[in-house]
Specification:
- It is built from 21 helices and 14 strands.
- 63% of the residues lie in helices and 11% in strands.
- With 577 residues, it is α/β, with parallel strands linked by helices.
- The longest helix has 48 residues, at 56-103.
- The two termini are 68 Å apart.
- It has a six-stranded mixed sheet, with helices on both faces. A four-stranded antiparallel sheet has the order 4-3-6-7, with no helix packed on it.
- It folds into two domains: 2-91 and 114-317, ABC transporter transmembrane region fold; 339-575, P-loop containing nucleotide triphosphate hydrolases (Rossmann fold), CATH 3.40.50.
C-alpha cells in the first residue's frame, strides 16, 4: 500500500521535476561544502601541536576557509528549503484542486451517504498533513543522499577500518525505524479517520445549534463529542507512542557507533596510524553520517501521518464519477417540455424497492402536481428527472430523447428548480440571484426580484442589492431566503420548472403573491410541483397521488375529489372542520 501511495505522489511531484532537480543541486552544493568542514576541523586541530607549538598562520587560513564554507553552505541549504517548499506546495495545490474538482463530478448519493465534515477534513486536514510530510520528505531525503555518500567517501580516505564499523552499526537505525513504522501506520490511519469523524460531528452540531438548544441536547452532544474525542486521543496516543520509540532507539545505535569510533580510533592513534585531528574529523563524520538517518526517523510520525492522510485523499479521488451521457450523446435544444416515464423502477438500496414500473406521460406546458405521504417517492421522481440518481430500469424521455443520452449540464440548464431548503452563499444579494446566470445585467436581476416579490425587502436592506449575505443567508429570514432562490430561477427563465415545496417557508399573504408569480412564470412551461398544502395545486392540469412509489390516483383536483379516494382523504384532513 505504501509503495502505491509513494508512486501516486510521485505522479504529482513528477510535474515539477525541474524544481526537484534544482533542489538536488542545492542539496549537493550545500551539503558537500558542509562535508568538507570536519576534514578542515581535523587539520586545524593538528595545527595545534602543543604549548608554544601552534601554526597560527595555517590555523587562521583554515578558520577563514571554514567561515566561507559555513556561509555558502547555509545559503545553499536555505535555497534548497525554499525551492523544495515551492515544489511541495505546487504538488499539494494540484492534489487539492483535483480533489475539489472530483467533488463536483461525484454522484449525489455520495454526499447523501458521507458526513460532510469528513469530506471537508479530507480536503483540509488530510491534504495539509500530506503537504507537511512532502516538504519534510523532500528536504530530508535530498540532504540525506548527499551527506551519507559524501561522509562515506571522506571516512574511507581517513580509515577504511573505522568506516566499516560505522557502516555496519548505523544502518540498524533503518531496520528499527521500518519495524516501528509498520506497527504505527495502522494507528495513524485510525487517527486520520477519527479526525474526519470528529469534524463531521462538530460541523453537524454547529450547523444546527438552534435545534440543539431547543431540545436541551447540549449535555448529550457533549457526551458524544467526548466519546469521539477520547477515541481520537487513544488512537493518537498509540500512534505517537510507537513513533516516539524511533528517535531514542536510533540515537542509542548512533551512540554505540560513536563509542566504537572513539575506542578504535584511540587504539589506532596510540599505534601512530591516526592523528588526533583525524580522530576528531572521524567523530564529526560519524555524527554527520548518522544525522540524516536520525532526522528521517525523527519525522517518521509525520511521514506516517502523511501516508495515512494521502490514502484517505486518494480514496476520494478514486471514487466513481457520475456516469456520463450514453453514446450517441444528444443535445436538448429548444426544449418543449414533453416528459415520459416508461416502466421506471428505482431504489436507493437494492433490498428496499421504492418505485416500481412507473409510467407517466406529461404534455408540453402541463402543470403536474405530486402529492402523497412522506416517503412515497415525490422528491425521488424529481431526483430521477434531474439525473441526480439514475433509474435502475426503464427510461425517462424529454422531447422523445432518453435523458441518459443527454449531457447533464445540458439537461439541468433546461430545468429550473426551487427547493424547500433554500441555499445562499456568502456574497451580495445580486450575486446570489445571478448564481445561475452570472453575466446577467443589473436590470434583469431587479426584474427577476420584482417578479418574485423580493424587490421590496431587498430595497430595505442596508445596501440594497449590494448588501452582503452571511454564510447560508444567516442575516435573512427563511422566507426572504426563499424569495431570493425563487428570483434566481425566474432569472434563468428555463423551459421547465420543478417546485419542491417552494413556498413552505413563506407567510400566507406572500404566498398568494408568489403563487401569482409562479402562475405567470409557468405559462407555457412544463412544471412539476411537489406540495403538502393541497390548496396550492388546485389549478394543476394533473395531480399525481403517490403511495410507496406507485401512482395510486391521477387526475384533476375536482376529478380526484369526486373519486373520494386517497386524495379525498388527504384533502379532507387539511380542510375538514
Amino acid at each position: 500500500m505504501k509503495k502505491s501511495i509513494i508512486k501516486r505522489l510521485w505522479g504529482y511531484m513528477g510535474k515539477y521535476r525541474a524544481q526537484l532537480i534544482v533542489v538536488f543541486i542545492f542539496a549537493i552544493l550545500g551539503n558537500t561544502l558542509s562535508i568538507f568542514s570536519p576534514l578542515l576541523t581535523g587539520q586545524a586541530i593538528d595545527k595545534i601541536i602543543g604549548v608554544a607549538q601552534v601554526d597560527f598562520k595555517g590555523l587562521i587560513k583554515i578558520i577563514i576557509l571554514l567561515s566561507v564554507i559555513y556561509v555558502f553552505s547555509g545559503l545553499f541549504q536555505w535555497l534548497m528549503s525554499v525551492v523544495s517548499s515551492v515544489a511541495a506546495n505546487n504538488t499539494i495545490h494540484d492534489i487539492r484542486k483535483e480533489a475539489f474538482d472530483k467533488l463536483n463530478t461525484l454522484p449525489l448519493k455520495y454526499f447523501d451517504g458521507a458526513a460532510h465534515g469528513d469530506i471537508i477534513s479530507r480536503l483540509t486536514n488530510d491534504i495539509d498533513a500530506v503537504s507537511d510530510g512532502l516538504f519534510q520528505g523532500i528536504t530530508q531525503v535530498m540532504s540525506a543522499a548527499v551527506i551519507i555518500a559524501g561522509c562515506f567517501i571522506f571516512m574511507l580516505t581517513i580509515s577504511p577500518v573505522i568506516t566499516l564499523t560505522v557502516v555496519f552499526i548505523t544502518p540498524l537505525c533503518f531496520f528499527i525505524a521500518a519495524f516501528i513504522a509498520r506497527h504505527s501506520r495502522r494507528m495513524f490511519a485510525e487517527q486520520s479517520k477519527t479526525v474526519g469523524e470528529l469534524n463531521g460531528y462538530v460541523e453537524e452540531i454547529i450547523g444546527n445549534q438552534k435545534i440543539v438548544k431547543a431540545f436541551s441536547y447540549e449535555e448529550k452532544s457533549l457526551e458524544q463529542f467526548r466519546e469521539i474525542n477520547n477515541r481520537l486521543y487513544k488512537a493518537g496516543q498509540k500512534a505517537q507512542w510507537y513513533s516516539s520509540l524511533t528517535n531514542p532507539t536510533t540515537r542509542l545505535v548512533n551512540n554505540a557507533a560513536y563509542v566504537a569510533v572513539t575506542v578504535i580510533g584511540g587504539f589506532m592513534a596510540l599505534s601512530g596510524r591516526l592523528s588526533v585531528g583525524n580522530i576528531a574529523s572521524f567523530l564529526i563524520y560519524s555524527n554527520q553520517f548518522a544525522k540524516p538517518i536520525n532526522e528521517i526517523t525523527s519525522i517518521a510520525s509525520q511521514i506516517q501521518s502523511a501516508f495515512a492522510s494521502a490514502e484517505r485523499v486518494f480514496a476520494l479521488l478514486d471514487l466513481e464519477r457520475e456516469k456520463p451521457a450514453l453514446i450517441p450523446e444528444e443535445d436538448l435544444t429548444n426544449c418543449e417540455g414533453t416528459v415520459s416515464f416508461k416502466q421506471v423502477s428505482f431504489s436507493y438500496r437494492p433490498e428496499v424497492p421504492l418505485i416500481k414500473n412507473l409510467n407517466l406521460k406529461v404534455d408540453k406546458g402541463n402543470m403536474i402536481a405530486i402529492v402523497g405521504p412522506t416517503g412515497s417517492g415525490k422528491t425521488t421522481l424529481v431526483n430521477l428527472l434531474m439525473r441526480f440518481y439514475d433509474v435502475n430500469s426503464g427510461e425517462i424521455r424529454i422531447d422523445g430523447k432518453d435523458i441518459c443520452h443527454i449531457n447533464r449540464d445540458n439537461l439541468r440548464k433546461a430545468i429550473g428548480m426551487v427547493l424547500q431548503e433554500s441555499w445562499l452563499f456568502s456574497g451580495t444579494v445580486a450575486e446570489n440571484i445571478a448564481y445561475g446566470r452570472p453575466e446577467a445585467a443589473g436590470e434583469d436581476i431587479v426584474k427577476a426580484a420584482k417578479a418574485a416579490r423580493a424587490h421590496g425587502f431587498i430595497k430595505r436592506l442596508p445596501k440594497g442589492y449590494d448588501t452582503m449575505i452571511d454564510e447560508d443567508g444567516g442575516n435573512l429570514s427563511q422566507g426572504q431566503k426563499q424569495l431570493l432562490t425563487i428570483a434566481r430561477v425566474i432569472l434563468i427563465d428555463p423551459p421547465m420548472l420543478i417546485l419542491d415545496e417552494a413556498t413552505s417557508s413563506i407567510d400566507t399573504r406572500t404566498e398568494i403573491n408568489i403563487q401569482k408569480a409562479f402562475t405567470k412564470m409557468m405559462e407555457g412551461r412544463t412544471s412539476f410541483v411537489i406540495a403538502h398544502r393541497l390548496s396550492t395545486i388546485k389549478e394543476a392540469d394533473t395531480i399525481l397521488v403517490l403511495q410507496q412509489g406507485d401512482i395510486v390516483e391521477q387526475g384533476s383536483h375536482e376529478e380526484l375529489l369526486d373519486k373520494k379516494g386517497f386524495y379525498y382523504t388527504l384533502y379532507q384532513s387539511q380542510f375538514a372542520v
